[in-house]
Structures are given as structure tokens and as C-alpha cells.
Amino acid sequence: MLNTYKLFLALFSLLLLSGCANPSWTATGKIVPPVYNVCPLEGKWTVTQNLAPEGYAGEANLPAEGGTAQFTRELAVLGGYVWNKPSYKIKKVNSTDYLMTRYIALNNYLVSMNKEVDVVTLYANLNFLGEFMKIDDATVIAFVQNKVLLLRKISDQADSPLPVADTNIRDTNNESNIGTSGIFIGVKIPSDNGYTYKTLWVASDDKKLRPVLTRNNIFFPRNSGFWELQVRSALNNGTAELFAHDTAVKDSATQRVSGETSLKQAQKRNTAIAIDYIGNDYIAIENITAGISILQVLPVDKLSSQIGIKVSDLLGAKGLTAYRSAREQALRSLRDEGVTLLNEVADEENFGLTRKNGHWYLQGRINYQSNGMAETREFPINIIPPANLILYDTLYLSWQNIKDRVPNALDAFTSPNKDIAIIETKNKLYIYGISDEKLDSLPMGEIEIREGETVIMAEWATGSYVDIWERAFLVNDAQVAENAP
């Protein structure tokens, strides 16, 4: 009897315990991401070879042959740099395809042809630092700041403690560099065939202006590196193509290669594309086909899609409500005017961005006909653009203060360091220092622009990234601007 009681008690306990657990079949569709206890580059490495060809410029503070690199979850140390709280992302790639995308021709003995390898991307404070191609557990090829280094592991563990107190090591997360700022400025230029584009680089150290650099097309930073964006027009058939590619990828005008994305428009009359805004991952354009002009927001990685992103996908439910309310108000006004609406159905893709008084604003568009002519009506979408669309859009000065100093100002951009400002007018871009939250009495310099030219991109770098961005720009054919300060 006692044994029966014990058996019953044991079975009852098992039932209670099983009731506390989730059976595997109840977790259908639930994906639990893997947890990594160590970083994918964990350990201490030595630089055994510089794989870049002779004359290929690189960052002097990175380790030379015989130097070391160390990685943990808490720190990444490369020569003269140390990054706190780095993040690592891993992707699997075909080794041959990946190396084909680089300007550097590497010896075949390093990797087996068409072998699948891991590429680890290193970030700090959301800034892209470099990529590390793992040949095996003890061999890595590092693509960092215009250098290509062969690393061999010498220890599975980094030094403890890491030499962060070394005065020769610069902590790029914590160094203030308050007086060092730089900005990529994308400019849209009216032309006989639509628009052309150029990029300006403006940088200063303690309000001392560096030479202004420029190059054709739009050169812009992304988490994966630096990209180029351009619009190509085919005059023989009236089509236009929006084209973007990673500048670390070989570019061929006749052959598509990995790393390129493009938007090919249907072959219709009067097809044109005008870029209104460029960010890290999204662009806003005006797409004109057969006389009908619509707005579109497109992801840089999927320009091959001719359909723009929907309001609900980018702005969520709150944004969709704001969009529909503003659009309906604009529609009522147009109905009162007795015009012919081309599409009264809520078009969630006909929206974009516009600039006003130092900020980007979301706007929608309605297409209609008046006296047989195609017309458009824009309406504001009263919601702040999300951070994944516009990462930085802060104006540290009051608009009134800007107008007091530059009465004909049309737009303004201020550095995250609060040390310089770019003021746009009809014919000039003025570069001002900022002191006590006011523009200085006189500009540090000015850049001539033609009437009708507009700024469509403003990407800021501060601290040590100013040098990194400037070097990348120079490597990609930037020149000192004519008639620039």
C-alpha cells in the first residue's frame, strides 16, 4: 500500500512539472535567435602581411606588419584605435564572389575557390568600421579604413586587461573632438535634360576650414561603407535609370556585378527621375512618366522595385492615420474646385520629403487634371519622419537667429558638435562657426551655387570619422573644388 502511494505521488509530481513546461509542438513559428557568448573574432591577432598593392593609401594608425589586433565583446583594439562596446554581424558569402567585389586582387592560395566563408562586419556606435573575411579559425583578411591586412590568431583570448590606458591608443567612442566636424552635401543641379548631381565635402578643425572637396554624382555613407548614387538617362528612348552601388565594388557600365542595384523605368515618353532626398538606407524621388509626376520613397537596397514603399510600412498605423486625414482634407479642397481627380483611392505610395526652415518634412501628393493639363497638389503629413528614414535632423540654432544673420537664408544645417553651420541661399552656401548658440559674425567661407540648385543630402561626421570620410572621398576621385574657400 505504501509503495502504491509513493508511485501515485511520483506520477502526480511529474504531471505538475510537465504543466510548467511548453511542449515543443506549442511553439510552432517561434524563432529563438542564437546567443553567442563570445565575439566571432575573439582573441589576439597579429598582422602578418599588408595585402594592398603598393601605393594604396591606408590609415596610419592601424597596425602594420607585426602589429596586433584584439577583439572581445567589450572592446576592439586595432593598432592606434580602441572601440568600446563594438557590435559584430556575421554573413555567409561565396569567397570568390566576395573577393571579386573588392578592388584588391588577393592571392589564390589564401582561399579555396567558391568556398563559403563568414564575413564579420564590425560596428561601433552604429558606425561601420570594417569587414573581416574568415579564411579559417586562425586566419582573417581585414578590410579596414582603406587597408587590407592578413591577420593570424596567436591567442584565443585577448590580453587581460586590454591596454586601454596606453596613451598611444585613441578611444574613438569617448574622444570628444568637439571642434572637428565634416559634412557630405548632396546637390541637385537643373540641366537641359533634367538634373545632374554632385557631392561636396566641407570639414573644419576648431573652426579652421579644410579645403572643400567635390566630385560628380552622390557619394554617401551607409553602415556597409560608402556608396554612389546616380541617375542615368537614355536619350534615344526617353528612359531613366536610378543606379546605386557600393564604391568598394568594381563598377562596369556594361556589366552588372554584385553590389549594384538599379531602377529601370518603362520605356515611355518623357520619363525622368528627380532625387529629392538621400539618406543612409532610403531615397525620395519624383518619378515623371508620360507627363504624370508621382512621389516615391525607395530603399537603396531594392531600387530594382518600381513600386515605392507604402506609408503604412514606413510610418506605421499612426503615420497612416495622419496621412489619410491630410489627404482627405486636400481632396475635399480639390473637389470644391471642380477639378478632375486622377485617383481618389488612397494611394499610400505617392509621398516623399521636402525641406523647409532647416528640417525635413513628410508630404503627400495628389494628381489631377485642370483644363486638360496634368497638375499636382502637395499636402503635409503631420508626423515626424522616423529615425530609420532620417537619422539626424537637428537644427541647434533658432530660425530667427539664422535669418537675423543671413536674411536671405533658405535652409540651414548644423553639426552634431554644435561648432559649424551650413546656410543655404539662392546663390551661395555659407559656412559659419557657432558660438554661444549663435552664428559667428562672419562666415568661415562660402561656396558658389547657381540659382535653382538645391541641397538633397546632409550627412555629418564628427571626431575621428572626419578623417576617415575625407580619405574615402579622396580615394573615390574627389578633387578640391574650384573657387571654394
Helices, strands, pairings?
Layout: H1 2-19, E1 43-50, E2 68-71, E3 75-78, E4 81-84, E5 87-94, H2 95-100, E6 116-124, E7 127-136, E8 139-144, E9 147-155, E10 170-171, E11 180-191, E12 194-205, E13 208-209, E14 213-216, E15 218-222, E16 225-234, E17 239-246, E18 260-264, E19 272-278, E20 282-289, E21 292-299, H3 311-336, E22 340-341, E23 351-356, E24 359-370, E25 373-380, H4 399-405, E26 411-414, E27 420-424, E28 428-435, E29 438-439, E30 445-448, E31 454-462, H5 465-475, E32 479-480
Parallel strand pairs: 4-10
Antiparallel strand pairs: 1-2, 1-9, 2-3, 3-4, 5-6, 6-7, 7-8, 8-9, 11-12, 11-31, 12-13, 12-14, 14-32, 15-16, 16-17, 17-18, 19-20, 20-21, 22-24, 23-24, 24-25, 26-27, 27-28, 28-29, 28-30
What does this structure look like?
Residues 4-9, 11-36, 54-58, 164-177, 251-259 and 264-269 have low confidence and may be disordered. It is built from five helices and 32 strands. The longest helix is centred in the last third of the chain and has 26 residues, at 311-336. It is globular. The chain is 14% helix and 43% strand. Strand 28 (428-435) and strand 29 form a beta hairpin. It has two domains: 43-171, no CATH class; 180-480, no CATH class. The protein has helices at residues 2-19, 95-100, 311-336, 399-405, 465-475, and strands spanning 43-50, 68-71, 75-78, 81-84, 87-94, 116-124, 127-136, 139-144, 147-155, 170-171, 180-191, 194-205, 208-209, 213-216, 218-222, 225-234, 239-246, 260-264, 272-278, 282-289, 292-299, 340-341, 351-356, 359-370, 373-380, 411-414, 420-424, 428-435, 438-439, 445-448, 454-462, 479-480. Strands 5-6-7-8-9-1-2-3-4-10 form a ten-stranded mixed sheet. Strands 11, 12, 13, 14, 31 and 32 form a six-stranded antiparallel sheet that branches. Strands 26, 27, 28, 29 and 30 form a five-stranded antiparallel sheet that branches. The chain has 485 residues and is mainly beta. It comes from Pelotomaculum schinkii. Residues 1-26 form the signal peptide. This is Lipoprotein.
